[in-house]
Design goal:
This protein is α+β, with helices and mostly antiparallel strands. The chain has two helices and ten strands, in the order αββββαββββββ. Strands 1, 3, 5, 6, 9 and 10 form a six-stranded mixed sheet that branches. Strands 2-4-8-7 form a four-stranded antiparallel sheet.
Length: 141
């Protein structure tokens, strides 16, 4: 029984460590999850993806440009704050011309995050995996 408890603790620690390695954050910002899982899935221009975290600011901060998400090649992504807490959720859309590389998320007064995105043109094999299907626009969720 004791070994099972230790195994459970190690599994939780491993899961926590794997998340923090993928989403590198500063300040108080924490990115908890993505849909689809960006560490395993390929996106295309026009695809939506969701980030869940502890605090992504206010809708006004996103609309004014104080908060922003920049994809590789310095392309700003369209972002909508869809939930302010429990967890905070933003939905972003991959712009035309985006390429694979490091994305940069800035939330004023909270912190920043960087993470890798895989972006390809055309239909990709990863779309065959159910977990890699991108979500639709927030109005259709």
């Amino acid at each position: 029984m004791r070994w099972m408890g230790i195994g459970l603790i190690l599994a939780v620690l491993l899961a926590a460590c794997s998340q923090t390695r993928y989403f590198r954050t500063t300040g108080n910002l924490r990115v908890l999850d993505s849909e689809p899982p960006l560490e395993r899935c390929v996106l295309r221009a026009g695809d939506f993806f969701i980030l869940k975290g502890n605090d992504f600011g206010t809708p006004d901060d996103w609309e004014s440009g104080v908060n922003y998400l920049i994809l590789p090649e310095e392309l700003p992504a369209e972002v909508e704050l869809t939930r302010e807490r429990d967890p905070a959720t933003i939905q972003a859309r991959v712009p035309e011309g985006a390429v694979s590389g490091t994305a940069w998320l800035h939330v004023e007064g909270v912190g920043e995050a960087t993470f890798e995105v895989q972006i390809e043109g055309g239909v990709t094999p990863s779309l065959a995996l159910p977990e890699c299907r991108p979500p639709g626009p927030s109005g259709s969720n």
